[in-house]
Amino acid sequence: MSVLELDRIDLHGTATNRDDAIRDVGAMLVSAGAVQPAYVDAMFDRERTVSTYMGNYLAIPHGTNESKDEILRSALAIIRYDSPLDWAGNEVRFVIGIAGQNNEHLGILSKLALVFSEEDDVEKLLAAKTPEELLDLLGDLSEDAA
User: Fold this and answer.
1) In whole angstroms, what is the distance from residue 39 CA to residue 69 CA?
2) pLDDT digits over 113-125, tens only?
3) Residue 62 annotated as catalytic
4) What is the rounded end-to-end Cα distance, in angstroms, of the chain?
5) Between 119-127 and 104-117, two packed helices, what is the crossing angle to 10 degrees?
6) Catalytic residue among 18, 62, 93, 105
7) Cβ atoms 85, 18 nearer than 8 A
8) SS (H, E, C) the chain
9) CATH architecture, domain 6-135
């Protein structure tokens, strides 16, 4: 099973604030069978400790080190927003929830950082019309996991 499946890519998120966005992306990870519901609470704990805003419209909410036992398998969930969300004073259009077992998420995070470091790539992700197109643009995120 891949770390990112098409049913975990939402191109038109409905949340209007950071907490709802975390709740939504966390619910996608729970419904995928990747994490226990307590992991979503840990995503909020992490956000209270340090912002998961990464720059270039990207936030990557994830649980705390103490929540590792709540992860059933490595997975990603992506929500893109038509209008920017206020993420502690920063504009976010992509919220990528991540859960990684055995540090698998580190390789995934580095690949995401590379894609989102290029403004041209971010513009292409913003313009993607289908989940398939977005997945193609992100590339082989799941190669190191699953």
Assistant:
1) 9
2) 889 999 999 999 9
3) yes
4) 6
5) 100
6) 62
7) yes
8) CCCCCHHHEECCCCCCCHHHHHHHHHHHHHHCCCECHHHHHHHHHHHHHCCCEEECCEECCECCHHHHHHECCCEEEEEEEEEEEEECCEEEEEEEEEECCCCHHHHHHHHHHHHHHCHHHHHHHHHCCCHHHHHHHHCCCCCCCC
9) 3-Layer(aba) Sandwich (3.40)
8 Å CB contact between 44 and 114? no
Side-chain-facing half-sphere of 21: CA atoms under 13 Å? 32
Q: Is the pTM of this model over 0.85?
A: yes
pLDDT in tens, 7-32: 999 999 999 999 999 999 999 999 99
Residue type, 30: V
